[in-house]
Amino acid sequence: MAEPSPASASSDSSTLSWKKRRLPTVASLRRAALQGKGEESGAPATVAGWLAGRRSSGRLLFLNFRDGSGFAQVVVFRKAVSSEAFEAARHCPLESAVEIRGAAFAEPRAPGGMELRATDFRVIHAAEPYPITPKEHGASFLLDRRHLWLRSRRQHALLRIRDEVLFAFREYLRDQGFICGDTPIFTPNACEGTTTLFETQYFDRHAYLSQSGQLYNEAIAMSVGRTYCLGPTFRAEKSKTRRHLIEFWMLEPEVAFAELGEIVELAEGLICHAVDRVLTNRAAELATLDRDPERLRRIQPPFPRITYDQAAARLAEKGTDFTLGDDFGAPDETALTEGMDRPLVVTHFPAAIKAFYMEPAPGRPDRVLGMDILAPEGYGEIVGGGQRIHDHDLLRERVREHGLPEEAFGWYLDLRRFGSVPHSGFGLGIERFVAWMSGISHLREAIPFPRTLYRLSP
RNA sequence: UCCACGGUAGCUCAAUGGCAGAGCAGCGGACUGUUAAUCCGUUGGUUGUAGGUUCAAGUCCUACCCGUGGAGCCA
Q1: Which positions of chain B lie under 7 Å from any protein Cβ?
Q2: Does the A148-446 domain belong in CATH 3.30.930.10?
Q3: Is A26 in a helix, a strand, or coil?
Q4: How far, in Å, CA of A403 to CA of A421, rounded?
Q5: Domain residue limits, chain A
Q6: A60: which nucleotide lies closest, measuring CA to C1'?
Q7: CA–CA separation, A397 and A384 (whole Å)
Q8: C-alpha angle A16/A19/A13, rounded to 5°?
Q9: How far apart are CA A170 and CA A352, in angstroms?
């Protein structure tokens, strides 16, 4: 590659030409047409994208066109274009790459209120017969063609909502003084020791794929105070439900000097900010998914807080199979959040069912300062975390009690030998959150290429 | 790992043990405002694999493969 001169590489003109090259788009044309800006509405424009659908009506064709920024109806009048262009528009297969010259107009009969009236139609690449039709398909068929399924209106909306959620989380945390310090994916041993890990080769040694960045986050938090990591997480559990993925993304904030109550508030603020951004910026996508925005508008602080023991009493009233001392099962979570319009915060779990690093509750050594946040509508646990043990001797005792290899946790115990402070954090499941925002029933649509128990491709 | 269900045309599904079917998609045609358009015509099959029972198996039996839903675990 030729080395660009420093002047041209950083000049305004190159930035401008990139910005200019990307316009107009379906989104910019719709904005202009709906706002009635004389400049762009009705003015000639050329857009490039894909043919997403077609209906014909004699000398009139209705195309559904997608250019990445959105979908738009294109009207092709036989008289308005050359006969070659009309035949091309009438016959080229769905998902062909096409270039359309025309003009955008506000049009109440068109979906989205804008349509592009074509003056020319050119095929950039004629597609082979497209396997995904506008009719019904099963999950298995679509997942085998996930690389193509992503082009559908529904998946397009889900990708944009996921992006909005991720951006909103980062925005909120940055605003609160957090640093994104990332944590390794190759790890020498288990973070928690409870769940199954994916084992892999690391040259001549064994390594595992990370199931949490938390322990590393604790080290980073002792440097910068407030940190988070956001990345993929791997659980080699043979989970086979709509609420589980083998590879999923997790946001994990960790805060020095924070106690349990403070990170509950952090989670609450973080969740409400993301909800607000999705409602503001992704209203059209929510409509595409038939997600009622009113349900999301009701997600406001404060979230109700109950302790594990209060939750257990509530389950006893409701008469689920729950046994005191156990963790909540999926039916228990659904029962607890039944009829609620905002998430439920549960704290003070039995020490026996939680991870070794959880701080004991003051005055209740059999309970720990852990917290789970259960989303309403059956979306289950979206947040899990709590306050970490900061006392060196207590933590070492817990490592031993759990039968963990003490030498592997040497560096982790070190954090409690050099200026140890109370600190807390949590993990938030991105796909569960996106699924909840979107109102979809299965996590596999909340990530572009889901990894499920028996599905590794595409 | 356990429980349940499924595998028939490109897709979604029918078919008492007795000729392999429909709708949609595709292809050809009609139609100047469609919203999953409509209408006419038409192509399309090693019934997941292997074996067994039977005059006869998509259908019954056995094993295996693949998938879907759920449980447990967790985000």
Answers
A1: 1-2, 10-13, 23-28, 30-38, 66-75
A2: yes
A3: helix
A4: 25
A5: 21-125, 148-446
A6: B32
A7: 23
A8: 10
A9: 34
- Residue by residue, pLDDT tens for chain A (458 residues) are 344 444 444 445 566 777 777 788 999 998 888 886 554 567 789 999 999 988 888 888 999 999 999 999 999 998 899 988 998 898 888 899 999 999 999 988 888 889 999 999 999 998 888 888 877 788 888 888 888 899 998 999 999 999 999 999 999 999 999 999 989 999 887 555 545 788 888 898 888 889 899 999 999 999 999 999 999 999 888 888 888 899 999 999 999 999 999 999 999 999 999 999 999 999 999 998 989 999 999 999 999 999 999 999 988 888 777 888 888 888 888 889 888 999 999 999 999 889 899 999 999 999 999 999 999 988 889 999 999 999 999 999 999 988 888 888 999 999 999 999 999 999 999 999 999 999 998 899 999 999 888 788 78
Using C1' positions and the CA of A331, the closest nucleotide is: B71
CA gap A252, A425 in Å, rounded: 7
State whether the beta carbon of A293 lies below 7 angstroms from any atom of strand B.
no
Which CATH superfamily includes the segment(s) A21-125?
Nucleic acid-binding proteins (2.40.50.140)
3-state secondary structure of A90: helix
For the CA of A327 and the C1' of B75, the distance in angstroms is: 15
Report residues 237-276 of A contacting strand B, contact meaning Cβ closer than 7 Å: 237-245, 248, 250
User: Could you check whether A21-125 and A148-446 share the same CATH topology?
Assistant: no
In whole angstroms, B43 C1' to A274 CA is: 52
Residues 320-349 of A with CB under 7 A from strand B: 326-327, 329-331, 333
Helix axes A430-438, A153-175, angle to 10 degrees: 120
Q: What is the ipTM of this complex?
A: 0.85
> Which residues of chain A (124-143) touch nucleic strand B at CB < 7 A?
129, 131, 133-141, 143
Furthest C-alpha separation in chain A: 84
Distance, CA of A287 to C1' of B25, in Å: 27
Which token pair is A272?
Answer: 């409400």
Q: Which of residues 399-428 of A touch strand B (CB under 7 A)?
A: 427-428
